[in-house]
UniProtKB/TrEMBL annotation:
UniProt name for this protein: Diaminopimelate decarboxylase
GO biological process, any: lysine biosynthetic process via diaminopimelate
SUPFAM superfamilies per the UniProt record, alphabetical: Alanine racemase C-terminal domain-like, PLP-binding barrel
Protein origin, superkingdom: Bacteria
PROSITE patterns, alphabetized: ODR_DC_2_1 (PS00878)
NCBIfam families: lysA (TIGR01048)
Positions where N6-(pyridoxal phosphate)lysine occurs in the chain: K60
Enzyme class: lyase
Binding site for substrate: R278, R314, Y318, E347, Y375
Length: 421
């Protein structure tokens, strides 16, 4: 459920008409709803109630400072995958002890940054990384709390580009080698081995892969404890999927996901962390765009929007579906027309949808892409020298621009022409 609904024939974000935001900010833009972010964060809180737990929002899904600050006020921790995201989380007011650091390629500089600023734990992904953190922490005269990310070799049954838990993926260490790697970690100076980490992929629409992976982690917890490790925290990753196509998908609910967690690791007397991104931020955002032209092609009509693949890359990159709806509510029973919905970028890949049935639309009309709050703005670029589009946050009946559109001067001035040219 989200807070983007038609009222009096026009689409609202909470109590603000989308067309008012469009008139003030100009299209295209992203708009996020505080109430929806809150609701989805709380669904996870409720799903884990009764367990000692922390919900760490995956910053990579939506790293805007206002979004992070809002979630931080609700008590969320953060999962970061770079020094830049670590800085974002800290700048949004998240204390170091609520930040976990994931990712396969942490540099010594990023390790120092997090150790200086405070960190809940590093999720280590390889032996060389383990050795480097040991060296960095020892040089600083400190102890780094760590888990090791294990790769359980489970098929997450999601898009191949966002599956991370199969043995051929670059993530984690093979679970079969875990006892050996934990023994090595425990022997290294500067590391405190506190738990186990797993994350098998994103946009999972089935609970079974989670269940299989968490069973394996539970078994490993018992083995590692028997080997003498004080395993007291399990980071179970993120990945729960959302219904991008509302008419025919109903992924599992957070409460059902919570039941899987309780069933698999609930009796281990551990602190549980989860790292949801998409399920918290995805349906909390829309991409709003204007129709620039309706073009009649050979046997098909094109809806040419002012948004493009550089603003929302998911359709081009993953073949992803986004529901696209008109901002002005169509009259009931109006005939639908198939359109190819495209952007103005000079690539055929700049296609959001093919032969999508929509009510008839005309130049100047507004459309909204649903479920665009996650992996939308964060993956945007300025390809074709199209400025990064603004982000807007709505709370009740007010809205604010939380990232402004850069001017062309700002964009061009980032380059420098060397004087010897
Ligand atoms: C991407 C990622 C997440 C978040 O995944 P979602 O599908 O957005 O919930 C969590 N943890 C790690 C390590 C990730 O790489």
């Amino acid at each position: 459920m989200d807070h983007f609904l038609y009222r009096d024939g026009t689409l609202f974000a909470e109590d603000v008409p989308i067309r008012d935001i469009a008139a003030s900010v100009g299209t295209p833009f992203y708009v996020y709803s505080c109430a929806t972010l809150t609701r989805h964060y709380r669904l996870f809180e409720e799903a884990l109630s009764g367990l000692d737990h922390l919900v760490c929002f995956a910053v990579k899904s939506n790293g805007n400072q206002a979004v992070l600050a809002h979630l931080a006020k609700l008590g969320a921790g953060m999962d970061v995958v770079s020094g830049g995201e670590y800085r974002r989380a800290r700048a949004a007011g998240v204390p170091g002890e609520r930040i976990v650091f994931s990712g396969v390629g942490k540099t010594a500089e990023e390790m120092r940054l997090a150790l200086e600023g405070g960190i809940r734990q590093f999720n280590l992904e390889s032996e060389p990384e383990m050795q480097r953190l040991s060296r960095v922490a020892s040089e600083m005269g400190t102890i780094a709390p760590v888990t090791v990310r294990v790769n359980p070799d489970v098929d997450a049954r999601t898009h191949e580009k966002i599956a991370t838990g199969k043995s051929e993926n670059k993530f984690g260490i093979p679970i079969a080698r875990a006892r050996e790697v934990y023994a090595e970690a425990a022997a290294l100076p500067g590391l405190d081995v506190i738990g186990i980490d797993v994350h098998i992929g994103s946009q999972l629409t089935d609970l079974e892969p989670f269940e299989i992976a968490y069973e394996k982690v539970a078994e490993l917890t018992r083995q590692l404890r028997a080997d003498g490790h004080d395993i007291r925290r399990l980071d179970l990753g993120g990945g729960l999927g959302i219904p991008y196509e509302r008419s025919n998908s109903a992924p599992p609910l957070p409460i059902e996901y919570g039941e899987v967690i309780k069933r698999t690791v609930g009796d281990l007397d551990v602190e549980v962390e989860i790292e949801p991104g998409r399920l918290i931020s995805g349906n909390a955002g829309l991409l709003v765009s204007g129709v620039t032209y309706v073009k009649q092609g050979e046997g098909r009509d094109f809806l040419i929007l002012d948004a493009a693949m550089n603003d929302l890359i998911r359709p081009a990159m993953y073949g992803a579906w986004h529901d696209i709806i008109p901002v002005e509510e169509p009259a009931p029973g109006v005939d639908q027309t198939p359109y190819d919905i495209v952007g103005p970028v000079c690539e055929s890949g700049d296609t959001f949808a093919k032969q999508r049935h929509m009510p008839p639309l005309a130049e100047g009309d507004l459309v909204a892409f649903r479920s665009a709050g996650a992996y939308g703005a964060v993956m945007a670029s300025e390809y074709n020298t199209r400025p990064l589009i603004p982000e807007v946050l709505v709370k009740d009946d007010h809205f604010a621009v939380i990232r402004a559109r850069p001017t062309f001067d700002e964009i061009i001035k980032r380059d420098t022409v060397p004087e010897w040219l």
